[in-house]
Amino acid sequence: MPETCPTPPELDVAMKRGRMGHGTHIAMHRHREGQLLYPSAGVLATTTELGTWVAPADRLTWTPPGFEHSHRAYGDTEIHVLEVPRALSGDLPDEPTVFAVTPLLREALVALTTARPFQPGARDRLRRVVIDELTHIPDHSVYLPEPRDDRLRAATAQLHVDPATSATLAELGREVGASERTLSRLFHAELGMSFHQWRTLLRVQHALVHLLDGRSVTSTALACGWSNPTSFIEAFTALVGQTPGRYQSELRQRAR
To answer: Is the pTM above the cut of 0.70?
Structure first.
């Protein structure tokens, strides 16, 4: 049974590290400081009123100060948390963002979230290195925006329930009382993308979780709505930056 936490789980204060079981949900909350969250294992989804950002184990999520958000873990997820003072947060984006984790970032984040001793001022200098590194890394978000229009929300809700559905925009429109043309216009106006692009993002987010669960690439492709693995691999690689096979291989290496 998935666990729901009204507040973030307690972290080891000395190490700023915590573990979330599969399906654990942290209710909406906000922080006075900014936070960088690095899942060294598992997958972490961060949701706000704007949409959902997904960070697999080779990604880092940035949450700005005061930004209301919730989290959900997929798989046994270990989180490294680095707080970023407001004075330094201005160098990072003003909305949640997911970055790729470079080798330098990984080593710095692990060092900053363990109980190792630091010389006076060294921790702050290393945190500054992390922020400087992030300013040179492009946004690598698998970000799914969410609509506000009731008709579009009803249509996308059906896709959330069954991402693999082959329902066309016209068919969804008939279900929610809107024309295909109206829904198409709303996708572009509210979400900044086409129906096809949004559904591909949704399917890739679900694919990240299926691959974490150990499903094969072919099984994941079919479960998420692709008719053949090649199309799935192309879409996944374009959004995640690596093939699904490579992504799954790295998950296994981290688990070992």
So the answer is: yes
